[in-house]
Amino acid sequence: MIREGKLSDADQISKIKVESWKATYKDLMPDNILKDITFEKEKEKFINKFGKRRIVVYEENDEILGYSFFGKRQNLNQENMADYTSEIYALYIKNDYRRKGVGTKIIQHICNTLKEENNDKVLLWCLKGNQGAIDFYKKNGFEYLKDKAQELNGINVEELSFGKKL
Predict the structure, then answer these.
(1) How far apart, in whole angstroms, are the C-alpha atoms of residue 153 and residue 145?
(2) Would you say residue 152 lies in a domain?
(3) Which of 16, 74, 112, 143 has the most CB atoms less than 10 A away?
């Protein structure tokens, strides 16, 4: 079942994020960045940002299997993207539940919600080299838009943007 995220979800969500980062980015990010991603820090971030962005979780038997943050587009100054008014900021699925439809259900839910709210297009970013995510987004109807360089914890990373008409 998909539902809105709650503050009481902080433990499960933080655990999923840490496990996802350490598994997904182990060959894409330096070890010092991955070591800096801890349960305690992620839980504190989640609590501090709660209510400032929308969150949905996919839950079965009181266990969160995945979640996503989404809402209004964060950076409206990017060229050729003015018609993308909404954005999916993050999507994380528990490692054991990847490739089992959880992410697709969350993405479909978000896209349907945004469309009902009169959004025409949604944008998201993913780390270059994260082929699993790239393939997933393409499978779910997102098209590649452009690259951007960004600094993350003192290192330069390349991100790819994808967009979808709702």
Answers:
(1) 25
(2) no
(3) 16
